[in-house]
Amino acid sequence: MEEVIELKGVTKCYGSLKAVDNLDLAVRKGEIYGLLGPNGAGKSTTILMMLGLTEPKTGTIKVCNIDSTVNPIEVKRRVGYLPDNVGFYDNQTGLENLIFTAKLNRATWTEARDRALDLLNRVGLIDAANKKVGTYSRGMRQRLGLADVLIKRPEVIILDEPTLGIDPSGVKAFLDLIVQLSREQGLTVLLSSHHLHQVQQVCDRVGIFVNGKLIANGTIPELSKQLFSSEVFTVEAGIAWHELEKPHQLMNDLGKIDGINSVKYEQNRLLIGCSTDKTAAIARTIVRSDIDLTHLYQRQYGLDEIYQRYFEGEQKYV
Ligand SMILES: Nc1ncnc2c1ncn2[C@@H]1O[C@H](COP(=O)(O)OP(=O)(O)OP(=O)(O)O)[C@@H](O)[C@H]1O
Fold first, then answer.
1. Which of 98, 111, 265, 302 has the most other CB atoms within 10 Å of its CB?
2. Ligand 1, residues 45, 85, 215: which to mutate, most atoms within 8 A of Cβ?
3. ipTM confidence score
4. CATH code 3.40.50.300 for 3-220
């Protein structure tokens, strides 16, 4: 598959600090890639290098097959960058701001106006097209920012914490729009964020970034397989158990089943880690005991658990 963003052996130092350390990263055409990591991990530095705004000490960076270090202007022409807080002319309207950007990108006035109106419509700002941007809410400014990025018809968009400060329904609309645009136009999206839930909702693949290194990279099922390889399945069983003591006999019986690696008791439920799907055997064992089964389902590992396990070390079940 064609790679639109490609970093090989990239290192960036600020004095003695290695902000990015021998990084290899590839983002494919049309995919939505989530860059996740704690504060100071090196995400913004990596983005700045992709845009050619700062140079790496070693390594190569190519965006749309163009070397960002050698030819940053050409890269900027093809890449739309949305920072967490976009600057606009506040005393001009949303429409005027977009027309201004389109004209900077060599559109004629008519083309610029048509494209601006179309994008205002797509990002849900058509009713506010003739209002001054100074009166826009934070969510409206971010949506206008997305329109401003798209007006130059980029092949790639890079979004750095784009949903910061937007309310939940605004976030959903914003993310849905990004997915829709990516799918319709084959747009490649790099999304840097702290919001695990949002990243999980929209990204095809995720990279976890810590201390300048990419410590994990893949789809969410791939990451959970890497991390939870001995406990691919976790089954949660609800039980009607009101004693203070744990249900030791039942836990022992479950623990004897081949393929069950751990059994943990939390209030009124058992969390059972298995290397293969043991749901049926678990159901039979509980039903045979004197304890009522109230629910049973397989838990999927989400990005929350994946992230937690990377940062807090492996949790042992008891
Ligand atoms: N211009 C600079 N001069 C010196 N150090 C810097 C500079 N920019 C970033 N750093 C340092 O480099 C490291 C990586 O910072 P960076 O901003 O890339 O991280 P980040 O993952 O984007 O963090 P955040 O999520 O907080 O934005 C940090 O330790 C930061 O203090």
1. 98
2. 45
3. 0.95
4. yes
